[in-house]
Amino acid sequence: LVGSRMFIAGIILLFYTTIKYKNLHIKKEHITLLICLTIYNIYLTNILEIWGLSQIQSTKTCMIYSLSPFVSAVFGFYTLKETLNRNKIIGLSIGLIAILLNTEEIHTISKLHLNYAELAVLIAVLTSVYGWCLLKKLLEYGYSPLLLNGISMLIGGILILIHSYIVGEKW
Asked: What is the pLDDT of residues 29-58, one digit of tens each?
């Protein structure tokens, strides 16, 4: 289902981008970044998250995904040379306090033993955040977010559909 949704959304975004901008050109030196965006932000994130969700409770998945802002801050620092300004520090502090005050989430954390499913969801968080960093880097080269998302969703959707077929999912 996710592969079909990504594939169709990619077609729609590219169709709209073609009409609006009439230019779908990607420079040769940026193709590697676009392929990485597709693999990390669409393919790996969705495959790992879906498998992890099939094995563990959705509350545990949400708790693991609540780490995204903290992972984003670290990835942004190392991959995009971003720094933490006052607003980011305040936002991260509020997020950390919210996690610490949520007794149910603390209880979930205490049960976290990182089995394969939990590890898959954690890797999905990492690949998702890294994918967003790649998207931001590509946007700095002047590409339309519609174009980048359209291409990555179309190709990522195809990869997910191929993966689904290979593992024998019943369509």
From this structure: 999 999 999 999 999 998 998 888 888 888
Q: How buried is 51 (Cβ within 10 angstroms: 0-12 exposed, 13-18 middle, 19+ buried)?
A: middle
Q: Which segments within 50-149 are labelled E, that is strand?
A: none
Three-state helix/strand/coil letters over 97-125? HHHHHCHHHHHHHHCCCCCHHHHHHHHHH
Could you give the count of Cα atoms lying within 13 Å of 12 in the half-sphere of its Cβ?
Answer: 7
pLDDT in tens, 97-144: 776 676 565 555 555 567 888 888 889 989 988 898 899 999 999 888
Closest CA to 156 of 23, 15, 34: 34
Q: What is the DSSP letter of 30?
A: G
- Neighbouring C-beta atoms of residue 117, cutoff 10 Å: 18
User: Measured between alpha carbons, how far apart are the two ends of the chain, in Å?
Assistant: 9
- For residue 158, the one-letter residue type is I
The answer to whether the beta carbons of residues 157 and 8 sit under 8 Å apart is yes
Residue 4 contacts residue 157 (beta carbons within 8 Å): yes
Side chain identity, residue 62: C
- Cα 60 from Cα 112, distance rounded (Å): 8
User: What is the model's pTM?
Assistant: 0.78
